[in-house]
């Protein structure tokens, strides 16, 4: 019975210290009842909360029967109070925070390695094989940790296709992996985040379509800057928040860092001053991977643009026509006074060429039955 005068208590020099794998042992024992107690003051890395022992209490009793009997099940489990996490997310702007319009990736597996008591990765006491899966908007966490060095790695096989890393705690030089330390002063961390951006893009032009054929033909046809274009649709994370860009001076626009998805681009043609003086022209769906993709049947809208992983949509263009014009009449000037008088008739079928300031033919037309002509797709400039 424990507590009697014949109890034998070992000294610390009799016990065998735990090894690299936490093993300990006492040899040369006789039969009888034994009590094994852990010196809690010697527990490392703040792992001081007991989670298991052989008899379910703070002290473990092992009954050894027979001189040659031995037991290897008198084990003690401990855990710490530390934790770390927290987010794997779509981060198109490449910063360190979850911003409006960004969302987390669920279903991504994250793996944890503890460097062990020696605080060195790659040695025999490393703890591996601990995993978590993101949920609830890309969140993950590891709890019950002790102090020391940890390495968190994203299992790239569980990431969506078409994305690349652009942020983690210790830099993307070690892509998909971040090292973090827990200490007594900082036992918990929620900054071990992993940001990713999409590899797809969509671009086009807003331009003056001089011949109104729905084809952008520079340098004769020029772009229109300052026009707002909006992107909507959905990607692998669901419906996206609308994004807007303004066309550059050459009329070009682009949406970059996109995830695979189905998108719509809309030209805000009636809302901005740059389009004052223009008439609505033809919109033209572009191409993805060399094939025409999308629906341009609605004015100022190109929809149904399916962008797969790692591909680019180009030439999603919005054409405009100028409302400026040059008009006149070719007529028989009977009295040669340069004035169209009553009785002086127009000459039909006369061909005219409109020259720009460089002398190049900009437009051609033919007079109508009454001798009138009109060229009505003119940008600002000087003409002959």
In short:
This protein is an all-beta fold and 384 residues long. The protein has no helices and 31 strands.
Task: Describe how the helices and strands are arranged.
Elements lengths: L31 E5 L12 E5 L6 E5 L11 E4 L2 E3 L3 E3 L18 E6 L12 E7 L8 E4 L2 E7 L8 E6 L8 E6 L5 E2 L4 E5 L1 E9 L19 E8 L2 E2 L3 E4 L5 E7 L2 E7 L10 E7 L2 E2 L2 E2 L2 E4 L2 E7 L4 E3 L2 E6 L1 E6 L21 E5 L5 E6 L5 E7 L6
Parallel strand pairs: 5-13, 6-14, 15-26, 15-27
Antiparallel strand pairs: 1-3, 2-4, 5-9, 7-8, 7-10, 10-12, 11-14, 15-19, 16-17, 16-18, 16-20, 20-25, 21-27, 22-23, 22-26, 24-25, 28-31, 29-30
Please characterize this protein's 3D structure.
It is built from no helices and 31 strands. Residues 12-17 have low confidence and may be disordered. A hairpin with a 2-residue loop joins strand 24 and strand 25. Strands 15, 19, 21, 22, 23, 26 and 27 form a 7-stranded mixed beta sheet that branches. Strands 16, 17, 18, 20, 24 and 25 form a 6-stranded antiparallel beta sheet that branches. The protein has a 4-stranded antiparallel beta sheet with strand order 8-7-10-12, with no helix packed on it. It is mainly beta and 384 residues long.
Backbone structural class: mainly beta
Characterize the largest beta sheet: strand count, sense, and whether it forms a barrel.
7 strands, mixed
Rounded mean pLDDT is 88
Helix content: under 10%
Rg over CA atoms, rounded to whole Å, is 39 Å
Low-confidence parts lasting 5 or more residues at pLDDT below 50?
A: 12-17
Name the beta content range: 35-45%
**Terminal residue distance:** 119 Å
Described by the principal axes of the CA atoms, the overall outline is rod-shaped
Number of strands: 31
Please, how many helices? 0
């Amino acid at each position: 019975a424990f507590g009697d005068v014949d109890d034998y208590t070992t000294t610390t020099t009799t016990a065998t210290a735990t090894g690299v794998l936490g093993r300990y042992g006492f040899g040369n024992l006789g039969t009888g009842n034994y009590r094994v107690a852990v010196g809690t003051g010697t527990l490392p890395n703040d792992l001081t909360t007991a989670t298991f022992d052989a008899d379910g209490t703070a002290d473990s009793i092992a009954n050894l029967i027979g001189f040659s009997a031995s037991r290897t099940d008198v084990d003690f489990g401990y855990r710490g109070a530390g934790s770390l996490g927290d987010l794997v997310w779509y981060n198109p702007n490449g910063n360190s925070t979850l911003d409006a319009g960004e969302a987390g990736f669920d279903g991504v597996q994250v793996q944890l390695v503890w460097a062990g008591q020696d605080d060195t990765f790659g040695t025999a006491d490393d703890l591996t094989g601990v995993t978590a899966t993101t949920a609830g908007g890309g969140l993950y966490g590891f709890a019950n940790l002790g102090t020391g060095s940890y390495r968190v790695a994203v299992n790239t096989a569980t990431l969506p296709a078409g994305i690349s890393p652009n942020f983690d705690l210790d830099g993307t030089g070690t892509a998909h992996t971040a090292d973090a330390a827990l200490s007594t002063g900082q036992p918990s961390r929620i900054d071990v985040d992993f940001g990713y951006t999409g590899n797809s893009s969509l671009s086009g032009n807003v331009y003056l379509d001089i011949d109104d054929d729905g084809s952008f033909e520079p340098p004769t046809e020029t772009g229109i800057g300052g026009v707002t274009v909006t992107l909507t649709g959905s990607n692998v994370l669901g419906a996206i928040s609308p994004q807007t860009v303004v066309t550059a001076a050459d009329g070009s626009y682009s949406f970059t860092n996109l995830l695979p998805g189905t998108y719509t681009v809309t030209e805000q043609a009636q809302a901005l001053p740059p389009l004052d003086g223009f008439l609505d022209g033809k919109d033209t769906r572009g191409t993805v991977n060399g094939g025409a993709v999308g629906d341009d049947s609605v004015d100022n809208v190109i929809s149904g643009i399916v962008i797969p992983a790692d591909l680019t949509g180009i030439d999603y263009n919005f054409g405009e026509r100028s409302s400026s014009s040059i008009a006149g009449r070719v007529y028989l000037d009977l009295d040669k006074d340069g004035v169209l008088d009553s009785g002086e008739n127009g000459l039909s079928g006369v061909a005219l060429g409109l020259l720009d300031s460089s002398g190049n033919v900009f437009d051609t037309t033919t007079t109508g039955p009454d001798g009138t002509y009109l060229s009505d797709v003119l940008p600002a400039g000087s003409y002959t």
